[in-house]
């Protein structure tokens, strides 16, 4: 493991990606920053985080052994690692909002941005970016966001949380390498927010529809049971879960 600590950077994911192209990095190279000036979220969004109060870090993992069609398993093991780590800090009611937002008591406390590095048409390594709201106490323009401190009343040491997440990630990636696909998927599905509950979605055109979340496919598509009793798969660009 190698930990690179920075005060301020545009984005820990971008920094680690650039570094991985310039030099050969050891597995588990971590970049952590107090402040990000251009923190990036999923689907081209901006990740806002009050600097030094929250965790913002990226981990490089060698995944050259993973078949490209199993790419979503990286997302699954990351979400599971964060949940396992947060459980150790007694954070209550943890769930995964598809594809990989981490909720506690129905509020988003953590976001994940995974960027795979493909070399010669093959999965080579992955950069796992994690933004965890830890000690921040106000989210004025983000009504669905919260922090570990707001939920538990406790103040946390950022490094302790990071090292626990990284330790869990190592264990889960080892399980993935050992081929424990079914166990991983089962554990992920068990923690899915609103699984088997009547839910409302919005499609890309803005129309709303209802259904029941049943499962995810190997490629990470959400499988939803619709009103006409048919299960349909959607990818991240096609739908968002409203409630
Ligand atoms: C999301 O929920 O949209 C994903 C947010 C991911 C944020 C983290 S913070 C550390 C790393 N560096 C980035 O620029 N983004 C990720």
From TrEMBL:
It comes from the Bacteria. One of its GO terms (cellular component) is cytoplasm. Keywords: Ligase. Signal peptide: none annotated. Residues 1-177 form the BPL/LPL catalytic domain. GO terms for molecular function: biotin--[biotin carboxyl-carrier protein] ligase activity. Pfam families: BPL_LplA_LipB (PF03099). This is Biotin-protein ligase. It comes from Xanthomarina gelatinilytica.
């Amino acid at each position: 493991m190698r930990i690179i600590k920075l005060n301020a950077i545009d984005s820990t994911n971008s920094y680690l990606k650039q570094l991985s192209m310039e030099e050969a990095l050891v597995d588990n190279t971590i970049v952590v920053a107090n402040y990000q000036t251009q923190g990036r979220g999923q689907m081209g969004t901006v990740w806002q985080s009050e600097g030094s109060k929250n965790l913002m870090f990226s981990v490089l993992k060698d995944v050259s052994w993973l078949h490209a069609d199993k790419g979503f398993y990286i997302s699954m093991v990351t979400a599971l690692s964060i949940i396992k780590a947060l459980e150790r800090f007694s954070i209550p009611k943890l769930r995964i909002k598809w594809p990989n937002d981490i909720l506690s008591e129905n509020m988003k406390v953590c976001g994940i941005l995974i960027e795979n590095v493909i070399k010669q048409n093959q999965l080579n390594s992955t950069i796992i970016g994690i933004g965890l709201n830890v000690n921040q106490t106000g989210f004025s323009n983000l009504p669905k966001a919260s922090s570990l401190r707001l939920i538990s009343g406790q103040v946390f040491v950022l490094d302790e949380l990071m090292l626990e997440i990284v330790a869990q990630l190592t264990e889960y990636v080892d399980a993935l390498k050992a081929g424990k696909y079914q166990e991983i998927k089962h554990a992920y599905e068990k923690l899915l927010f609103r699984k088997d509950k009547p839910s409302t979605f919005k499609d890309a055109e803005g129309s709303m529809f209802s259904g029941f979340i049943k499962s995810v496919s190997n490629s990470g598509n959400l499988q939803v049971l619709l009103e006409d009793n048919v299960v349909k798969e959607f990818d991240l660009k096609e739908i968002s879960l409203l409630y």
